[in-house]
Amino acid sequence: MTKEAFIQNVTEQIRCVRARDGIARELSDHITDQAAAYEEAGEAHEAAVDRAVQEMGDPVEVGVELDRIHRPQIDYKLIGMAFLFHIAGFFIIWLMGDFSNHPQYIARQCVVLLISFGVMAGMYFLDYSFIARYAYGILVFVTISLFISSMVVSWGEGRFVGIMLRYLYVPVFAGILYRLRKGGYRALLWAMGMQIVSAGLAYRVAGTLFTAGNIYVMCTILLVIAVAKGWFLVDKKRAIGVILGVLVILPAALIIMKGIFSGYGFQVQRLLAWLNPERDAGGAGYVYQWLRQEWGMVRLVGAADNSPLLGDSLIGGPFFTEPFILLQLICKYGILAGAALVVAFAAVVVRAFQIAKRQKNQLGFMLSVASFMVILLNCLEGILINTGYFLVSSMQFPFVTYSACTAMTYAALIGLLLSIYRNERIVSEETFRRPTWRLTVKWEKR
Amino acid sequence: MAIDKSLISGSTSMLILRLLEEKDMYGYEMIETLQKKSENVFVLKAGTLYPLLHSLEGKNYLTSYEDEVNGKQRKYYSITKAGRKYLRSRMEEWQEYQTAVVHVLGVMVG
Q: From the candidates B66, B76, B78, which should be mutated to test the interface with A, based on the most A CB atoms within 10 A?
């Protein structure tokens, strides 16, 4: 049997096409090395290769064994959760949205649900490495989508339509980082520039400073992880120092300086209102006072007494109704119902963390960390906002959203996590770590 | 000396992990080193080695990376922290087993 026939026989047993190339290369290298050793011992080239192939064992047995190891795996836990929570979310939106008085929205929400499942399935079956391959193209695509969505008002979501869509900059930034690995200090500087571009675009195209800040923080974390994992082949401590210095301390100093000299009227007012709602009870502090009142009325089980939120519908209600859907649920059905929703969010966050933690594939790891951070941060901020412990801002929870863009963004992130888990055993690649040095001394007879 | 395969098969992963504890190696290098160290007692087939390596990598006991040495691209394997921990437990297990076998054989010979 020839070397090529042996490798073909092995790879034919492996059902996952993407796993084949790496295995074929490794086996081919082995046969070449073995044959070279036999040749060195005095055998003729062809006989040496034949013997090396024979030494490999039965190709079908080897292939079947490798197929067992490299088959795609399905994360039933996350699929189950995603399916269940999407359906539950649909009914929560139904109840909160007062659909009995707005039947035309039922069809709309059904379409949003179906699109979410479609996006999730699409991401699941796609080879996630496309995010690294086309990172810059996707960056442009997300920016254009944001630009278009910021102009769309027909679905009643106004300028908040693209809030979640902006968070797609985070996994895209992870893809950019992957492309820049092994690039040294120049690539590191480029990555820092791209981080500012991502957060800047999120702010400029259709955003609020708050969301841009979130994206900026998450990109910083990804960049520090990439440096710590040795992606840039630079002095890690020095590089992390530079990142923290330039990307954290400098903007912070700029914000403080700007606040001192030209003022941050709106932001400062918001902050003061949060810290002391009584100070401007009729203005910026109103929402925090209202939150306190609502929490004073809620019950463990059942509807709150005289809660103003009970009369509010998600559709046609005040602009902040959607971020407060958790509180609205609690007001309508009690603290236990809200706690169940929080447990659902926590379950997804924990599963996302577990998937990220077990990734050996570098790109898979970085993308799953990006997805995990986006879901975690939004859930955490959402819960804190609903309980009055955080500045009220434009955030949206997963699953319980009226926004098609938000639903699709979360579906894409969950689909991405499923795809990473699915390909975990298939894609095994270099980890960009080189031995610190390797000395080879050769003795040649002349 | 030819050794019954069943005696080796159970401990192959332990032997591979022990080799990688000393330094990172590629597949062919592992077979060579194992053969030399065992004075030709352990002659591992590539068809056994690679599925084992990939399986250990799947369990997070090993990681792999590619490196160019003498103009050739090689896939190196490196033992992880979890791999070292697993190796320690397997070695303790092996020590216990070996002591028990020696005791029994010793008693029988005696």
A: B66
